[in-house]
Amino acid sequence: MTIKLDFRTKLFMTIVLSYVMVLGNIQVKYFLQALIISVIPIVLLINTKHTRVAIIGMATLVFVYGADRFLMKLEYSPLVAILLILVMVVKKILPAFLMGKYTILTSNVGESIYSLKKMKCPDEIAIPLTVMVRFFYAARIDYSQIKKAMRLRGLTLKKLIKSPILLFEYRLVPLLMCLSKTADDLTVSAMTKGLAVNQKRTSISESRIGGIDCIFFVIMVWAIYLYIRGKYA
Amino acid sequence: MLSLQNLVLKFDGESILENINLNFKPGEVTVITGHSGTGKSSLLKVINGIIPEYDCGDVKGDVLYKDKSLLGMSILERSKFISTVFQNPKTQFYCINSTDELAFQLENRCIERNLILDKIHYYSDVLDSKDLLDKNIFELSGGEKQLIAITASGISENEIILLDEPSSSLDYESIKNLKRAIIELKKRNKIIILVEHRLFYLKDIVDKLCVIENKTFKEYTKEYFSDDFFERVSEKHNLRNFNEIFKSDFLNRQYEKVDMLQKNTPSNFANRSITCLHFKKTYDKNTIFDFSVSFNNGINFIIGQNGVGKSTFINLLMGTMKGKGEVFYKGEKLKKRYENIFAVMQDVNYQLFTESVWQELGTVTKQDDLKNEALRKVHLFNKKEMHPSSLSGGEKQRLLLAMSMVSQKPIIVFDEPTSGLCKMQMDILIGFLNQMVEQGKTIIIITHDFEFIKQCDGAIYEFTK
């Protein structure tokens, strides 16, 4: 069974996970709970069949937690300290990153505008937000095409590493050209399909907070509770 | 009825179209054709309002629909009765999910959810796009994307449907689907206006043919359409062919069917210039292909249905994708493939990196005389100081051709080089291809364009499964 979360729940989870995991010290005080919270986005990703991202996320997670344990046992040295910091940063950011990825991968434009509107978010914010998601999607495709084209022209990283400015320029100039064109085309396509600010609109996706959303809300509240306890108790 | 009255279109004071008078009736298919850069697409933009609201341009005269002038209306107001299917399938969608995209316009009109779903159901059935529902649009093929765009225009139930070169990157099967969809919309009494270079699929559905020449329209209505009319017209205006070309027309050429799942190594590889040995690619445990193939010097066309794996094969050949297989050129194994292969991909915008045409050539060779010669050959000499992105699509492609000529690479790969080219540009391209063959290069071309293959000599490889 596929878990279908409301866009608002996903947004809430992304915000909570980034705040609690990045700024809190759950990882230090409640090892098991932190692990459980970190696994939530991975479970969701597997559930929606984004297996590749899920596996990479899981492997990174296991690796950093393992590395953490291992490094703690070693004697102090500057290198160990640097590695520990690195591991800590990844541990903190990873859940938020995976949750954000999940939100982007599984939300669609119509649904997100509709949900944001239900939250009384004004069109001036809701529409640019959804355009941004769509724009990044196009940008990613553009960028990989450009990298490929450069490789074919023999403009490889190896050759250009000595002149980083040139590398930067060769990658960026066509990307900016493509992106400005993409932005234009997207605007035109939205306008010719009647998207406008401050108009009433419907959505075919059923945007409702259901039982499953409530469960995740409770889990998030629990995470917030852990955050507060870890910090102040 | 939609009518253009004394329409004049100017860009920067220079007129592109002059005194256009045309009427479009419901249930009629109007095809607008002519050479590149004559303002065909611009005319569509005047009708749907992109000019002057989004793109600059000076419009005089009038565009009337149901006796009301459209010129005072915004794109948004016009979107209530005009739908546009754009040329580039990559950016004409606002959503990522196909069902979402189909619902998008009606959602904006605040129509009730169940009614939208009913309409999606009905039109995807009629227009044969049911299998495409609820998919990621970016993972669909070009033909499937175009079908989604047309289904969306049907669902909007707009009376006017504009299509800007919808067939430019489609294979024959997809063009058939496109044609079927246009016929269905025609039955529903829409005003359909198509801008197109490839004309063969339109012969039996067109009601009015307009050719743009010297800034004005030559209009041919149904009464003109006699047996030899289409041939005369295409000769007179140097247009592309109206007659469908079949695979059976190529029987007198070197024609090989290549089974992409057959592992055996044929014995006739020995004397050929390029051999791709044991090419294998799997994706999600499915084998896309597992085969060997070899090409001779000269031009080699690769044909086959959308999605059979032609592009994947080419990417593996060029080394831009991981996979198994070895490439031999004249008996020697190629280690760094990209050092021997020059590619002209379908979207030329990705392939130009520098600030001027001259610098662009400089990334391939340092010899000025070679550069000058190549630029003269492709008629870009007077544009050598220009920024590559200010060139037109055809000029960008020619710049890449110039680069492939001066580069020392013996193998040149093209992906759909004729998409969006008019007859004249296609003939120029063929001229350059022949020059490259004389230079001794091996050329591999992926194409769906049988007319191009017919005009141009070369071996044909049909990839099948």
UniProtKB/TrEMBL annotation, chain A:
Keywords: Membrane, Transmembrane, Transmembrane helix
Record flagged with keyword Membrane: yes
InterPro entries named in the record: ABC/ECF_trnsptr_transmembrane
Mode of membrane association: Multi-pass membrane protein
Record-annotated membrane-spanning stretches: 30-46, 53-72, 78-98, 209-228
Signal peptide span: none
One GO cellular component term noted in the UniProt record for this chain: plasma membrane
Location, primary (coarse class): membrane
Subcellular location per the Swiss-Prot or TrEMBL entry: Membrane
Protein's name according to its UniProt entry: Cobalt transport protein
Automatic annotation (TrEMBL), chain B:
Subcellular localization, as worded in the UniProt entry: Cell membrane
Top-level division of the source organism's lineage: Bacteria
Record's GO cellular component terms: ATP-binding cassette (ABC) transporter complex
Entry keywords, A to Z: ATP-binding, Cell membrane, Membrane, Nucleotide-binding, Repeat, Translocase, Transport
Membrane topology: Peripheral membrane protein
SMART domains documented for this protein: AAA (SM00382)
Residue spans crossing the bilayer: none
Major place of residence: membrane
Family annotation (InterPro entries): AAA+_ATPase, ABC_transporter-like_ATP-bd, ABC_transporter-like_CS, ABC_transpr_CbiO/EcfA_su, ECF_ABC_transporter_ATP-bd, P-loop_NTPase
A Pfam cross-reference name: ABC_tran
Keyword set includes Transmembrane: no
UniProt function note: Probably part of an ABC transporter complex. Responsible for energy coupling to the transport system.
Family: Belongs to the ABC transporter superfamily.
Name of the protein this chain belongs to: ABC transporter domain-containing protein
Organism classification: Bacteria, Bacillati, Bacillota, Clostridia, Lachnospirales
